[in-house]
């Protein structure tokens, strides 16, 4: 490209990808300014006349009351804790800028290629560590630490609430089912052997080798290793010092039965209630392996991150930080906004959509910068089909609903048709009201931007707002005369979706006066901790999923698959539905308003639901396998069949696919002057800060 005269020129680059099966396209546009000078017309970079407060400290105000669930990278699986983990623990490799298919070495010395770390059939991957790596406490980081960390991640892959270990484990263990433990019993020597076979290390050469049961593309394995949740390298010496060591005596004694027992015992520490609290909330003296370390933590309120004094200063694209980061998880959105508007905070996140006009006013006055970019994240209302009665009453003794109320598929379908999607998008979320792109409607877990996306035109059963049909469904359900009073749970600070829940509650009472739904705020960390099978008090709650990696399996598995992150805590289990069907068939269920005459009909519906859910599970596992094998035609067909079943089960009420935004002060810039370093959809869906790539000043 040439220019005939000096000046400033705007250049846009649009990258368009196409699904070769559906011909659906997905585009991303980025803009650059090109300065063209001449001997007579020189230029220099513009320096704004703004004051940069506290140049050595980045202050962040996050509308996330309650803070994180954990700082343990093998346990935590939510966005607030993940952001901290992302910055204090290193991975072998990480994403290159906003690209989801290119990677750069982090703790590894280089990214392996075929012939230089990857064997010819893509079943062995060897990584060489950088020399001289040290954790923040000075402990050397070696190949042994990587090996130890991988085994710990695999051992925790079946923890409850859901843990991220399944992401890497699916590539390491033969015939692995996501969100399950590999060692299934104290004498499961086969499971123990499979873990040991999966990864080896050599401290003499400082290398770690992954031995995969099936050929796996570099893009697939690398996304798992780039994900700090599960892929983080921990300091094994420190873990053992704080009582979180793994007992490898059986390995050294060549006794797999002994090792299986030790592994099985360790797996139990990955379940809520059994966590090692030193690792859950590590002190400043812990061995952090990333560019930052946790210097101070005030539970539920704030965290201070300081540069790791041992982080190398010669890693390309991952500079040694020179700023302290203070993150405040404030009590409400007003506090977060006021901190940002007054200049106390450099970055603000989690604000409801109603604050965007105020942020735009700040931008117009030169007091804020707004950036928009595509994200791999979706938000929805989830149904719990096995509500814990005791836990529900602990929230409010007046709440009353059968545990099995939402197990009835017609009830869920009625609720889905009672939600006003257009009103939500246009006026509550506010795309039309605020003339701002917060996101777009969607249907089905597989959203645009994934390798397999099924447009609504190819799906059956996507609900629309129709109160007449919703009332008809409730009457057909057999539950119309059952009086219920329950909360629609919304994360504290999310005023947007609290308003949506109010709208929905009014519509529900209009279709059935026996339904009294009450919007209720609850700290996000509490909601996360409630996602335990049989212990979840939330009949309906608002949540969402952000990408761990940009493949369809990352959304289908946690959202649909039995035992998944949501389905586990929401009671989705084939045997539960079969047993519940038998109770209704025998007219053994008693609840005020439930007629014994309709119980056999309900039992039949539940039986059919169990069969359909079993089919959904089988389809997802086959689709995962086809996706891994890069069988495009088969994977697309299988995912489409699965989506159609899931949508017609009405497991969720789909709200919107997120369009991400950064709201920062004008003196905050991306690494190398490019905000795209903070816009990778594989890093928290694009919404978590990588603080060594933020530049203040």
Polypeptide structure, described:
The chain has about 700 residues and is of the alpha+beta class. The protein has 3 domains: about 1-45, no CATH class; about 90-280, Alpha-Beta Complex (Dipeptide-binding Protein, domain 1); about 375-660, Roll (Dipeptide-binding Protein, domain 3). The chain contains 23 helices and 22 strands. Strands 3, 11, 12, 13, 14, 15, 16, 17, 18, 19 and 20 form an 11-stranded mixed sheet that branches. Strand 4 and strand 5 form a beta hairpin. Helix 14 (about 410-415) packs antiparallel against helix 16 (about 465-475). It is globular.
Radius of gyration: 26 Å
* CATH fold description of the largest domain: Dipeptide-binding Protein, domain 3
What is the number of helical segments per DSSP (H or I, 4+ residues)? 23
Largest sheet: 11 strands, mixed
